[in-house]
Design goal:
This protein has five helices and five strands, in the order ββαβββαααα. It is of the alpha+beta class and 153 residues long. It folds into two domains: 2-73, Ubiquitin-like (UB roll), CATH 3.10.20; 82-152, Orthogonal Bundle (DNA polymerase, domain 1), CATH 1.10.150. β1 (2-4) and β2 form a beta hairpin.
Length: 153
């Protein structure tokens, strides 16, 4: 049983099946993208038990019983998460392939500490790969979302 975005998914997978593949193929949550399959690019980042993890490196069985949050669970109904709004406002995406990973990585970090300084945000963002944006718009979006999340806290 996987508990994803508040919904239980009864899945039966081989012990060696990645969480990313299970989310996509068995839970129908295709927002978790699979890029390098080596934990380098970060496009598969999800939040497991409050921690950002590379879903391509985690086995689905390791996540059993833990709360999992994917990009599909970031918004609250029609209300976008501050990160989603900031990525739109600051043009933090181009092709969009890496975007779910950046959103989940930043959400995990900012939900734990919305007071990250510029250096910490740069360090955070540098752990994921984007081939299109040059990162400046992603940095601007994460910084803007951090301000909103500080005000909401």
């Amino acid at each position: 049983m996987l508990h994803v975005n508040g919904v239980d998914h009864l899945v039966c997978v081989e012990a060696r099946r990645s969480l990313a593949d299970t989310l996509r193929q068995d839970c129908g949550l295709t927002g978790t993208h699979v890029g390098c399959e080596h934990g380098v690019c970060g496009s598969c980042t999800v939040i497991v038990d409050g921690v950002a993890v590379r879903a391509c490196l985690m086995f689905a069985v390791q996540a059993q019983g833990l709360p999992i949050r994917t990009v599909e669970g970031l918004a609250c109904g029609d209300i976008l998460h501050p990160l989603q709004e900031a990525f739109i406002a600051h043009h933090g995406l181009q092709c969009g392939f890496c975007t779910p990973g950046f959103l989940m990585l930043a959400a995990a970090a900012l939900e734990q500490d919305a007071w990250l300084d510029d250096a910490a945000i740069l360090d955070l963002v540098s752990s994921n790969l984007c081939r299109c944006t040059g990162y400046q718009t992603i940095l601007a979006a994460v910084k803007a979302a951090a301000i909103v999340m500080r005000e909401e806290a």
